[in-house]
């Protein structure tokens, strides 16, 4: 029987952590090889929050990826005091701005501590006028399983107050967020690979699995079901964002485990397997690229990725970073990458 080959055009990762320094050099190629482009998160230490910093960070990324054809779609770390003049001056360097509630996830200490609409109005009105999307890590500081659902009312408040602002609910993990998508025209969402596969049971139901620990924490089976429904249908308001978030092994296998799951090198293989299992391969292209192109209005670099149905054993680590499902066998392997 001939093996099944799946072709993907210009895959996009709409939520990616490339880090900086040695880590950037160690892991950037894993994304740049197979993805056409990615939205690059700004939560460095210190966060990327000036024009000089975003330009310099992009240069370091281009250097780290070497010959690969890959677009880093840059973002700034949202500060409520960004004024119109500043936003106009930085408009051409960025694709979006990322808002973090203060202290809610890795390197978010300098984030927003209140969601008063009038305080945020000058920056968010200017972003609406300049057509700069707002990406949001949507969690309150409530009980860990309820943080995202509690944040939905903040999403609604923002969506209503700034109807021309594109708001991307990043890495959604709950049924409540999926339902919010339907209520506001200007709400969109990214969904990770791991939240389509795991629930809290996989993280903490047996022996604790640090490499599956991330923010937002994986939720209940009915939440995963709701995410799967919209992802497998390639609902036009959802797009793939891996939230691949590498940490060195010692920071994960530690007392006080850093949040983040590293999936960049295996995301396309595992998504193909997942969509095939659910008879939804016809929708994978839209989930992985088409929807994001429309939502963000971007035209990615051409890149054709071929995957074939041949077992692949996930390496134990990539340059000191342990991937999701290290050592396990998955159904699809990377066959080749062609540039246009
Ligand atoms: N997702 C995570 O658990 N961690 C991310 C930050 C984030 O996306 O919230 C990281 O930067 O490590
Ligand atoms: Zn986040
Ligand atoms: Zn992230």
From TrEMBL:
SUPFAM superfamilies: Metallo-dependent hydrolases. The modification N6-carboxylysine is found at residue 98. Keywords: Hydrolase, Metal-binding, Pyrimidine biosynthesis, Zinc. Its cofactor is Zn(2+). Pathway: Pyrimidine metabolism; UMP biosynthesis via de novo pathway; (S)-dihydroorotate from bicarbonate: step 3/3. Substrate binds at residues 17-19, 43, 137, 247, 259. Binds 2 Zn(2+) ions per subunit. One of its GO terms (molecular function) is dihydroorotase activity. Belongs to the metallo-dependent hydrolases superfamily. DHOase family. Class II DHOase subfamily. This is Dihydroorotase. It comes from Sulfurovum riftiae. The gene is pyrC.
């Amino acid at each position: 029987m001939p093996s099944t080959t799946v072709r993907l055009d210009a895959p996009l990762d709409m939520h990616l952590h490339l880090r900086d320094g040695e880590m950037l050099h160690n892991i950037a190629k894993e994304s740049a090889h197979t993805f056409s482009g990615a939205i690059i998160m700004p939560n460095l230490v210190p966060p990327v929050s000036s024009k000089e910093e975003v330009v310099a960070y992009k240069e370091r990324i281009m250097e780290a990826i070497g010959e690969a054809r890959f677009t880093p779609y840059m973002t700034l770390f949202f500060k409520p005091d960004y004024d119109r003049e500043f936003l106009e001056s930085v408009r051409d360097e960025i694709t979006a701005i990322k808002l973090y509630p203060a202290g809610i996830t890795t390197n978010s200490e300098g984030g927003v501590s209140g969601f008063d609409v009038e305080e945020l109005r000058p920056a968010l009105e200017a972003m609406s006028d300049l057509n700069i999307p707002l990406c949001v890590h949507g969690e309150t500081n409530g009980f860990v399983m309820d943080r995202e659902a509690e944040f939905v009312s903040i999403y609604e408040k923002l969506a209503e107050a700034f109807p021309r602002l594109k708001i991307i609910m990043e890495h959604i993990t709950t049924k409540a967020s999926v339902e919010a998508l339907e209520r506001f025209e200007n709400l969109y969402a990214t969904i990770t690979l791991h939240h389509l596969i795991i629930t809290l049971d996989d993280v903490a139901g047996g022996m604790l699995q640090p490499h599956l620990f991330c923010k937002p924490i994986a939720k209940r089976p009915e939440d995963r079901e709701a995410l799967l429904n919209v992802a497998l249908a390639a609902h036009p308001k959802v797009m793939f964002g891996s939230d691949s978030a590498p940490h060195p092994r010692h920071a994960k296998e530690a007392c006080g485990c850093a949040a983040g799951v590293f999936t960049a090198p295996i995301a396309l293989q595992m998504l193909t397997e997942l969509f095939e299992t659910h008879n939804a391969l016809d929708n994978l292209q839209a989930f992985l690229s088409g929807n994001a192109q429309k939502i963000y209005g971007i035209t990615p670099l051409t890149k054709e990725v071929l995957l074939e149905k041949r077992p692949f054993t996930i390496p134990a680590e990539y340059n000191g970073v342990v991937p999701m499902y290290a050592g396990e066998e998955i159904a699809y392997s990377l066959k080749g990458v062609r540039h246009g």
